[in-house]
Amino acid sequence: MKNLRRRRQIDFAAAIEKRLVDTVITATTLTVDLGIRSYPIVIGNGVLGEYDLGQHIAGSDCLIVTNDTIGPLYLDACQRSLSGKAVESIALPDGEEHKTTDTMHLILDKLVSMGANRDVSVIALGGGVVGDIAGFAASCYMRGVGFLQVPTTLLAQVDSSVGGKTGVNLATGKNLVGAFYQPDVVLIDTNTLSTLDSREFSAGLAEVIKYGAIVDADFFAWLETNLDAVIARDTDALIYAIRRSCELKAEVVADDEREQGRRAILNFGHTFGHAIEKLQGYGDWLHGEAVAAGMVMAATLSGLSEKDVERLRALIAKAGLPVAPPPLATDDWLDVMAMDKKVQNKTMRFVLLYAIGDATVSDTVSVDALRSVIEGTQQ
Ligand code: NAD
Ligand code: GLY
């Protein structure tokens, strides 16, 4: 697989411009810089169906993994982007509750029934659930085959499709089984967001705001001015917001692919957010909604100036997201957060802000400080 991937080490940006030169669709490209596993992120309005995904595929066999909501909308266009390849598809049941090893087995069984070899490529067409399951299946099948991401939710476009985290849930917890497995390309068609409902769109905005909050004060300020245009799904504003989010994530991932250190800042608001999801019961609040309230809590815990906490709160509210957690017992919060994946040597770690655009990871947060934030920020 390494050799196959090495052969794909070409000047992606030049190749992509050439492939799209005869069409009226324009695309912008950036690279996730991971040495021989580097890959391009191609972003444009209407690129799905126009852009040639086949250039990132070593063999001829492909399996598009989608679900029963997204398939009817975008499977045809995805197949057009794979013209000349032998394409099969599988539609998974829709929903986080299906992000399981059983569902992953459906993909593995399909690959076996296709007689797929190591040169097969798996294409994830969907949101973060499809991307995470399909990526994990691609990482396991014959110890790793080609993997392409075609994310169709805002959250997947700015977060889950980039950076190589794949996996499924166990009954005992979210994302407990998985692998770091980078895709060969990420193709983002902003036009797919036209069918996404506004609640899911807002949930994706939480992650967009997160990038400004943790690493780019200028982007945060840009969002304060331009969020209305992004929410209206103005093409230029949307492409800028998605591109900048992907650039910022790519830069952090290139620095620390396997989350040995700095990558943990991408979890800003997530320790509180995961606790909300777990305590409420998954599916009540969307992930992005829980992260949004979690970011306000984490900013408060950071001791950020009230002016900056208010800027964050205002931007989150403008995005149509909750700025406060639901009322939940403080001891339940503390129990759940003690199980967070960021816990090391039994010490809780939190992503805190020195200022907007400047994050750090701290393992010195006291239980008293946590109690005060939990009790002070609840609805
Ligand atoms: P999702 O995949 O469940 O998609 C949300 C809903 O939107 C689904 O019903 C889906 O079918 C539908 N949908 C998707 N695209 C659509 C479109 N264009 N038009 C209409 N409907 C569409 O949810 P999500 O928010 O995309 O992803 C959440 C998942 O991502 C979680 O499982 C989370 O753990 C995971 N995640 C992974 C990473 C990572 O780094 N791998 C990061 C963040 C989140
Ligand atoms: N979504 C957090 C990460 O990719 O590390």
H and E order: HHEEEHEHEHEHEEEHHHHHHHEEH
Strand content: 15-25%
Strand pairing plus helix content: what structural class? Answer: alpha/beta
Oligomer: single chain
Annotation field: number of helices: 14
Radius of gyration: 20 Å
- Helix amount, in percent? 40-55%
Average of pLDDT: 92
The first-to-last residue Cα distance is 51 Å
DSSP strand tally: 11
Bound molecules: nicotinamide-adenine-dinucleotide, glycine
Plain-language structure description:
The chain is of the alpha/beta class. Helix content is about 45%, strand content about 20%. It has 14 helices and eleven strands. It has a seven-stranded mixed sheet, with helices on both faces. The chain has a two-stranded antiparallel ribbon with strand order 7-8. Strand 1 (about 30) and strand 2 (about 40-45) form a beta hairpin. Helix 6 runs parallel beside helix 7, helix 10 packs across helix 13 and helix 11 (about 285-300) packs across helix 14 (about 365-375). The longest helix is centred in the middle third of the chain and has 21 residues, at about 235-255. It is globular. The relative contact order is 0.10. The protein binds nicotinamide-adenine-dinucleotide and glycine. Glycine binds next to loops. The site of nicotinamide-adenine-dinucleotide has 29 residues, from helix 5, helix 6, strand 8 and helix 7.
